[in-house]
Design brief:
Pathway: Cofactor biosynthesis; (R)-pantothenate biosynthesis; (R)-pantoate from 3-methyl-2-oxobutanoate: step 2/2. The chain is of the alpha/beta class. Strands 1, 2, 3, 4, 5, 6, 7, 8, 9 and 10 form a 10-stranded mixed beta sheet that branches. Helix 4 links the parallel strand 9 and strand 10. Helix 6 runs parallel beside helix 9. The chain is globular and about 55 Å long.
């Protein structure tokens, strides 16, 4: 842990797109950043807005190499969460707070069992278009927002990143915010991934209509889960999708193109499992989940 006159020590678990961007922008703002990863890395570079950043980061490949941090940012893909358990045990000391910067709607339930008792957990939603094009090589397309719940932890998180290019927004109803974020993924991610197409496909009228139907199913499920959402939120998510440049992609598409396992169980799967709990029929999302599972099996086998 730091002394009072030294910068906060941040440990970022995961050197993918979100982790790399978070580490780079936090270090640029003067914070003390260690990037925790599975394979050795000599350097992280990130292209953003016509410039290339080479942040002065520390790299660690073993939990025992890093002392407890002031803040831990968990940025792994959701399916890799349990693999970060060793890091979380070593990095969490008295006073450590863990920001869970992942997709999905169940941050607390997913990560709480992996933390030492009493560790503060702050769920966070990442609104950023960023792509890992090679190990240690990140391309930032646009946006770098993190949405967290209102409250003392959220305020400290915002203060921590004040002055960086990471914009923190606190929200009063995080359950609703999490489902709204999921809406930006629940149609675009499966469609681009299954078809291996970029975001331009949503400009096709038939594909646009299909995305609307997929999202309507998601809205019904989210409302049953207690989120304050409507069809207007689905339309808002789809507008965000279609505002992406035609050659842009989704995180799930990038994973498929790179041969990595998919995050489908925590996006489409989250909708299907919640629908089952409430007896809601979601045939389109169930079909997408079946197809994504088949794609994922092939990726894992390959």
């Amino acid at each position: 842990m730091r002394s009072m006159d030294s910068p906060a020590h941040i440990a970022v678990i995961g050197a993918g797109a979100v982790g790399g961007l978070t580490a780079a922008f936090a270090r640029e703002a003067g914070l003390d950043v260690t990037l925790c990863l599975r394979s050795p890395l000599d350097e992280l570079t990130m292209r953003t807005g016509g410039e290339e950043l080479r942040p002065d980061l520390r790299f660690a490949t073993s939990p025992g190499e890093v002392p407890p941090a002031d803040w831990v940012f968990l940025t792994t893909k959701v399916q890799d969460t349990e693999g970060a358990a060793g890091w979380l045990r070593e990095l969490c000391g008295p006073g450590t707070a863990v920001a869970v910067v992942q997709n999905g709607v169940d941050h607390e339930e997913r990560v709480r069992p992996l933390l030492p008792e009493g560790t503060e957990l702050l769920p966070a939603l990442a609104y950023m278009a960023v792509e890992r094009v090679a190990p240690g090589r990140i391309v930032h397309h646009f946006s770098s927002e993190l949405h967290v719940p209102e409250g003392p932890a959220g305020d400290r998180f915002a203060l921590l990143l004040e002055g960086s290019r990471l914009k923190v927004r606190t929200v009063a109803d995080f359950r609703t915010a999490a489902w709204r974020k999921l809406f930006t993924n629940v149609a675009a991610n499966p469609l681009t991934t299954i078809l291996k197409q970029r975001m331009h496909i949503l400009g096709d009228p038939e594909m646009h209509a299909l995305a609307e139907d997929i999202l309507r199913e998601g809205v019904a499920v989210a409302r049953a889960e207690g989120a304050d959402v409507s069809d207007a939120d689905a339309q808002s998510a789809l507008r965000k999708n279609t505002s992406v440049p035609p050659d842009g992609g989704t995180s799930m598409l990038y994973d498929r193109l790179a041969g990595r396992p998919l995050e489908h169980e925590h996006i489409t799967g989250a909708v299907v499992r919640a629908a089952e709990r409430h007896g809601i029929d979601v045939p389109l999302n169930r079909m997408l989940l079946t197809m994504l599972r088949a794609v994922d099996r092939e990726l894992r086998a390959g």
